[in-house]
Design brief:
Blueprint lengths: L3 H20 L23 H16 L11 H23 L18 H18 L2 H21 L16 H9 L23 H19 L5 H21 L12 H24 L7 H7 L2 H17 L11 H14 L1 H25 L7
Helix pairs in contact: 1-2, 1-9, 1-10, 1-11, 1-13, 2-4, 2-7, 3-4, 4-7, 5-7, 7-9, 8-9, 10-13, 12-13
Length: 375
């Protein structure tokens, strides 16, 4: 069984990733296209957890044949570990690419963690959970991870800061990162100053639950008929998660950079609502013409994401002209082709939209050539 609506959901998510990544390079960007500075949640903050949620839903179908009576073989575990390793390596490639030169990878200061690294770890650990724990055990573990992370972040004291200090450098997760990862390999941007990492080690624990939430959703969908009542069920679950995450956020703020437990539940609620909309339109009502472009992007999501990030790095690191004041290729294109007539905010948005269309064209080419790059 394959859900076209899941491919469309994945395509919407990867298009959103490309859009916000490109728009975010500009100094002036509309607030919905920027991450919340700290606590809170913007539409941009939904993109990453959506991708983890989708991985979980897809896992339902890829691992469905393995049961207590049909245990996975060593070859199955090898494929899982290999996929996780490739994702982690791709993340290191993106972090090190053009760090201080065209093909220079500065191993002394390369950032260890990142988006693909978090996807790698959460996919690996969620897969092992699904393959080795019964259904009730999976749910219990998910609850333990969310509550345990909350208790650790709020009540374990950090030297020189104390307990429950949820700042970039004072939170318990950043302290764990500093203990395990050398300072030179931590995230230096967005005010972290090598004191922590927004995709750090401890905060990757609740990210596992983002994947498991998708897996639980996929398991439920597989047991339901392709009818509107299934879509309604997804909507009700989604609203319930939004309320629970919002309420929990009163004591443990919704925060993407800390990947708080409230953030996991809150964003899973939005993921359920978007999946419900895709499911109802595509699987139930068979209204599919609008979704083909997203389906095409969804079929090569990782390839398009990696290529788009590499392009952004090239645009930012290369320059038009010579001399100290030569603008980057990104700024030259942005200022001359977009901001000069549309204004700064509209210019950054249009540049990002054109970039999405560019990668859609690449995706269409790959689709027509039957090139589907899987990790």
């Amino acid at each position: 069984m394959r859900l076209t609506s899941l491919d469309v959901f994945r395509g919407i998510t990867i298009a959103g990733m490309i859009l916000v990544n490109m728009a975010g390079v500009a100094d002036d960007v509309y607030p919905p296209l920027a991450h919340a500075d700290w606590n809170g949640c913007t539409p941009t903050d939904l993109v990453f957890p959506f991708f983890l949620f989708i991985i979980g839903v897809a896992m339902t179908f890829s691992l469905s044949k393995y049961t207590e009576a049909n245990k996975p073989t060593s070859a199955v575990y090898w494929r899982i570990f290999r996929r996780a390793a490739i994702l982690f390596a791709l993340g290191l490639l993106l972090n090190g690419f053009w760090n201080k030169g065209v093909w220079t990878f500065d191993l002394s200061s390369i950032r260890i963690m990142g988006v693909l690294q978090r996807i790698s770890l959460s996919y690996l650990l969620a897969s092992l959970t699904v393959l080795n724990l019964p259904r009730k055990g999976q749910w219990i573990l998910a609850v333990i991870l969310l509550i345990g992370y909350w208790l650790a972040m709020m009540y374990v004291p950090v030297p020189n800061y104390g307990a429950g200090v949820l700042t970039r450098e004072g939170n318990f997760g950043a302290y764990i990162d500093r203990l395990i990862i050398p300072e030179a390999h931590l995230y230096a941007g967005d005010g972290f100053k090598n004191l922590g990492d927004p995709e750090g080690l401890l905060s990757s624990i609740p990210a596992i639950v983002s994947v498991l939430a998708g897996y639980f959703t996929g398991e439920w969908i597989r047991s339901q008929p392709k009818q509107s009542r299934t879509s309604v069920g997804l909507v009700l679950f989604g609203i319930g998660c939004l309320i629970l995450g919002w309420v929990w956020g009163w004591t443990f703020p919704i925060n993407k950079k800390l990947w708080t437990s409230s953030y996991v539940i809150f964003t899973s609620g939005w993921a359920l609502l978007l999946l419900a909309a895709c499911y109802e339109l595509i699987e139930v009502r068979l209204i599919r013409r609008w979704s083909k472009a997203f389906e095409i992007m969804g079929l090569n999501a990782i390839a398009l994401f990696v290529a788009s990030v590499l392009l952004i790095k090239i645009l930012v690191k290369t320059h038009i002209g010579s001399g100290e004041n030569a603008p980057s290729t990104y700024n030259w294109i942005y200022q001359n082709l977009f901001a000069s007539w549309a204004g700064t905010f509209n210019g950054s948005l249009l540049f990002a939209l054109v970039t999405v269309l560019l990668w859609l064209a690449v995706g269409i080419l790959m689709y027509r050539q039957h090139w589907f790059l899987k990790v």
